[in-house]
Task: structure prediction
Amino acid sequence: MSMKVLGIVFSYADRENLRELTKIRTLSSVPFGGKYRIIDFILSNFVNSGIQEVSIITRNNYHSLIDHLGSGKEWDLTRKIGGLRILSPFSNPGGTDNGTYLGTIDALSKNMHSIKRSLAEYVVITGSSFICSIDYDEIIRSHIDRQADITAVYARQRPDFELPDGIPLLRMDDQERVNELCYFNDDCDPNTTTFSLGMFVLRKSLLESLVADSIAYGRYDFYRDIIQRLSNQLNIRGYEYRKNYFEISSVSGYMKENMRLLKEDVRRQTFEMPVYTKVKDSVPAQYGAGSKVSNSIISDGCRIEGTVINSILSRGVVVGKGAVVQNSIVMQNTEIMRNVSLNYVILDKDVIVRESRQLVGHETYPVVIEKKSII
Amino acid sequence: MSMKVLGIVFSYADRENLRELTKIRTLSSVPFGGKYRIIDFILSNFVNSGIQEVSIITRNNYHSLIDHLGSGKEWDLTRKIGGLRILSPFSNPGGTDNGTYLGTIDALSKNMHSIKRSLAEYVVITGSSFICSIDYDEIIRSHIDRQADITAVYARQRPDFELPDGIPLLRMDDQERVNELCYFNDDCDPNTTTFSLGMFVLRKSLLESLVADSIAYGRYDFYRDIIQRLSNQLNIRGYEYRKNYFEISSVSGYMKENMRLLKEDVRRQTFEMPVYTKVKDSVPAQYGAGSKVSNSIISDGCRIEGTVINSILSRGVVVGKGAVVQNSIVMQNTEIMRNVSLNYVILDKDVIVRESRQLVGHETYPVVIEKKSII
Amino acid sequence: MSNAKKKEMIAMLLAGGQGSRLGILTNHVAKPAVPFGGKYRIIDFPISNCVNSGIDTIGVLTQYRPLELNAYIGNGQPWDLDRLFGGITILPPYMKAEAGEWYKGTANAIYQNIEYIEMSRPTYVLILSGDHIYKMNYKMMLDYHVQKGADCTIAVIDVPYEEASRFGVMNTDGTLKIYEFEEKPANPKSTLASMGVYIFNWEKLKAYLIADETDKKSENDFGKNIIPKMLEADEKMYAYEYKGYWKDVGTVESLWEANMDLLNPEVPIELNDPPWKIYSRNGFLPPQYIGENAVLKNSSISEGCNIDGTIENSIIFPGVTVQKGATVSNSIVMPGVTIGEGSVVAYTIIAADTVIGLNVKLGAGKETLPEGTHPDISVIGQNIIIADDTVIPAGAMVGESIAKKESE
Amino acid sequence: MSNAKKKEMIAMLLAGGQGSRLGILTNHVAKPAVPFGGKYRIIDFPISNCVNSGIDTIGVLTQYRPLELNAYIGNGQPWDLDRLFGGITILPPYMKAEAGEWYKGTANAIYQNIEYIEMSRPTYVLILSGDHIYKMNYKMMLDYHVQKGADCTIAVIDVPYEEASRFGVMNTDGTLKIYEFEEKPANPKSTLASMGVYIFNWEKLKAYLIADETDKKSENDFGKNIIPKMLEADEKMYAYEYKGYWKDVGTVESLWEANMDLLNPEVPIELNDPPWKIYSRNGFLPPQYIGENAVLKNSSISEGCNIDGTIENSIIFPGVTVQKGATVSNSIVMPGVTIGEGSVVAYTIIAADTVIGLNVKLGAGKETLPEGTHPDISVIGQNIIIADDTVIPAGAMVGESIAKKESE
Result:
């Protein structure tokens, strides 16, 4: 990409109920797809699109995110010019405020000192609720071609995806010009909805003035106060994303979306471009003489002696002899001892499940076991 | 160094009155010696001693520090194993506290989750009030040789240095065993004082248990509650630092200490080992046909057309024709226009002094001009 | 600048060999870059040993097909060797004012890089080679070297008497001082075999290298020239006995064996060893997917694999596809290989990116062999295509694609 | 892995030359590593141009004394080229299965690295050389190349007619399409001189390189062989006119001139240009100290200097000491030099780390010369000692230390 572009990530979401999974971490550092975290997909999209400058806006619980990202080397974002910048709510110079944001515009405004210093011409803004494999280069080209002020990325309903309440819907004319914003509820027809993927492209100078104007009038919400309010003054265009996406906002959805990775075409679309993540230098997965594994995703460093069916295992998971893991998601370094039986369970990191224990959840309400629990 | 060591830096100080200089930045990111900041000397001591893992404890106003350090590349601290970690008060996992520390022990305790994960055997703790060129490798060897529990680095009064009130004094027996702690005040005899440089070496495991114990009893001050209270239970040894040091706690002291760098032997001792700082890729300093420069430190990127005497200029300073800068400290990218006259002035970054203005302070009370002012 | 830091010990890694005994496996890459152990390359072992021993300056001497090795080493980041001071540097031969010359021997390779070494002003230099699998703490060896006050310390391993004649053998006195070195002796006087790991006092070594260079009859080799000359001059040379797992992987047979050792819990080479990790450059592949028809027994499988067949006693590298009904046993399958439905692979090494068609039979059939022996290992070369229904017997080496037979 | 990213354009920098016309200045370093402009090396200019033009993959072809260049380039961090994908790579000659060969010519150097280039699968390849000082946006040149639909675009600069015969001259039609190339023509038909900066469509270039390699009579050189052959075959070749400052620094005289140009506000080469910085590897030196006796006029002085003498119209590199009463004028003083009390240095280039004693006279005295000319430039070599009271005349080249005369 020859244009200079700054990526801005909102690492948290208001519209999210992931229970124990976001108790100790912000949305973007929630594990997904075995060895990844949501932020990995976001940063990889940037890097694969040639965007080498990324600012991540954090609000709370961002310790695990900072830990995961380190200096940004694994994403090639340890750059002298540009690179990765984590904007914590309390780092504003001279700031004495209490670190909460009144809304997305307020968050942008409170971090404007940093955004302003970037030499980028365009910004790509994204949230952390959607995971996809998207080429921003193409979107920026379409943004320029159509002389758009703002380009809003949208997608259509997938047959196996229930739109969550409150997701912002974009209504467009036949030129994809956005003329109305509303929120999904029971009255909407899910078959005709075009919903926002939370990604926007605009000139950095326009973002700066829109944010300054909104703040001056006490307006804090990007959707309501910029997209909706200004839809007839600005040329806001939709850009349709047509490949696979994952939406993460509830525990049952989290489980279902993970499990979709067991389908070959979903995997192919998700990993068509490389997805970078923290390197752990784990050994390859080891399968013992008595192992039985079927339709599962297994990460490096696992040691499987038991049975694993329709499940997703992150790095360094141990499954003992006689244990049966079904329809479950097991996060990093969790140990499942002999003869344990699990069905519809999400085990967070560093959990130990002792011999012969049994945990059974249901597809609609998976059991979630908190990080470092011993069962 | 074959021993694994973690460096811990307190980037702020309670005992400090630097007026405008720390209004917008924490103590350790205050500029010193032309192109450096205090943290540069601290990190360079670590790196030159073979310490490759450093945690920096921050409290407030740490934005400029984060900015300066970036990914830590310039100090070779962008490591896969170890490297640089900035601990911000709000990054504690699950933390909901309001980000203030009750004292140094409390600060260590609140960051213990990170300190504990380090594989280091020893820790070196340092504050940010003293600048020196010190070999921690040697101190750790003496620590081990003397089977010390804690080694406290101390120095003696320098003839040209007035001890500031409240500086902690260490009283030792003839084996350098610390047996008393007191604070400097008018009653102390400055000629016999041995004062703490705020640097300590101890085993990480001992630090962990001392901090846990103190917190359990509601004790929060490292000097009072560990060094003083435990001086007869622990083998606390002094280690005398004999080379040049700078102490930064007041504006007049800041000016005096900077000016001492104009002495050759002070410069030699300070820069005997390399001091790393952020690379700015400035051009070399340019001296115009009418320039007159005497007894001054000039950094890269300066353009001098006027007169500079007994002064210290950071990078990118412009001194116009006919301007006279005397006994002053000029920080980065400040522009002094034609025929300006300055004497005993500290100009912070990005200041503009317009044609023919005059600013005069006094050695005991230098004028300080805030960042980005236009005079 | 002049105040760059002095290093106590730096390592020089001899990675020059073409490794012709590995046959077609080194057609495209230097031996140290040959894949090993499911996700590593052979050179990851000495490099990781260095890093884990606290050595942060490593020169890699190479002159044969360095491109892949160069790309693999890159800026050294996977081994935490992307340093401002030190780090890892590839050192090919170069031209001086008059002319250039290729490396004539191991000692000449070091000689030609004296200037590189002097930049770090080391007290000690560690000489390593790039074709052994082992985990060793060189810092402990250095402590021993210093404690003995030695000029040169050579790491040795106690081998069975009947194998000693395949190695360079160190004859030592009771204090492990070396008084004689014999290269592949017919009647060994000792069973202490040289591992090709040396620590030298740099000033001493430099003097010998310079002297050796003027000796027109010398082959400029450590084992053949430098060590004997130092012994002759009565320098203080000590053997340092290493007790762990160590294996030369210079032949197809030994490369296969060393891989199989990883699957054998009886053999003391555990790679899952957090304080002594073996680092390697990781690709950017998703986790492996195990299909509904997979059967996995005592095997090691890496990222990006897609396994729907049967894998037994095998090492499967990243990005390998094994289709339904295919069976892989006692084999090593390198990155990016595809094995088609119904194929049977046994006692075979398949090099990277090769495509095995449907119903292919590679390697040993159902021979009955004496206990403790195994069929000859077949080797299939890199980036070729083996057509459907091909049958390759045990011990064959296939370097070119095999096309489908014309229908008769 | 296979899904590594394709690059639109990568750069290949020919840094092989010994640069013998720079005499003793290249005794220890390759020409591209020669210091320039107060804190840079010549090679910083093409590398920074690449980085500022958005090119992040650069191969540096070198075979002459690469050690210092290697150490200087390191992991590429100073130029923001320490990349996971791409970055800067030093490419020396290497051995293939049979044998190795040194680079025979500029085209052969690229030919031998076809495999390296193919790793990035570029559409375009930019060929640069390492001995020119200029700031140029190669991205604009690429846009032009694409817009013209060219197979090859050659950057040219309009030179005075009387100088054109010193260059390779491009004869073009009205659309700047090149129909003829003449190397140093006695009677130039045009004043468009080649800057040695080429953009090729990679597939096209590769075909010509492979063909050229089989031509036994070819010198395997871009200017002498590849360009003429492409013209002959009527490929679409365009000239791209560059209007800025450009200087070949292949001789002592031109190196001195280009340095002096930096001090001349009339000459359009401004290095203090934030959006187009020239990056370089910085030492770790403190800021410069200017003493009480210093007199500084129209000069450029770098970090770590200690100046107590008089400096006029000169470029002083990092870490230089000029003692009280010494005078340096119209000179270039490279890193780490010391100039003793009372010495007078004029129209001289002093190479790195040399020590000039007390009351030494280097270079031109008080000759009267015609206006617009200057005395011959003296050159003092690297890391030598010039004893007190030595007198070296204008235009001399001193490569060895000069000892103190025995007292008579």
